[in-house]
Write a structure and sequence with these properties.
Elements: H1 2-23, E1 31-35, E2 40-44, E3 48-53, E4 65-74, E5 79-83, E6 87-90, E7 96-98, H2 102-108, H3 112-122, E8 137-138, E9 156-160, E10 163-172, E11 181-187, E12 196-202
Parallel strand pairs: 8-10
Antiparallel strand pairs: 1-2, 2-3, 3-4, 4-10, 5-9, 6-7, 6-11, 11-12
Length: about 200
Amino acid sequence: MKKCTLGIFLVALLILAAACASVAPEKPGTIEIQKTGPFTYMRQTSDLAIVVDVELAQRRTGEAYFPLGIKIANKHLSSVLIDRETLVLVDEAGQVYQMPDIVELEKKYDKLVQDHKFQSQTGIIGDTILTSFSYYQKAPSRFFPQVQGGGYVINSVKLRSFAYIEDMIYFPVPPGGIKGKTLKLRLDVFDLDKPFEILFPVQ
């Protein structure tokens, strides 16, 4: 009799737990920022994913500009516009920096050729990992052709659903430098209530 009563009690507890779980509010679909390799950080939701690689940035901390390897994937939105106004850098003080145009960069930064050689050896995203968007279609992206004095520039990319870009982009170094700082890459997306952001440190 005691065993029967105990069994009924346990079943009741299980039913109650299942009922509570079914009415509990769902947690946001955001997967927190992950360190996916020695130099690579990723943030993704059900809509978007951004990967940032800082390996080359950590070699350019004394320059006026610095590079970031990026991968941006549109997982479910109708389209995402990526250009020099929608994709920006934010420093620890909240100051916003836009990407320069290629002419401005070439005047003040003389390492495009070296960056190209480095990138050709390691890949733009050096710590490549298998992700849910690894097999999406790659869209053309070339904000900064890695050949000084030439190359076709793509200033704007309209990224459709189930597609991604992979590129090397540049930003001005904020006052106080980037070494030891935690920076933020921000993408303004029309279909989202707020910008999509990823934090990443530069050691």
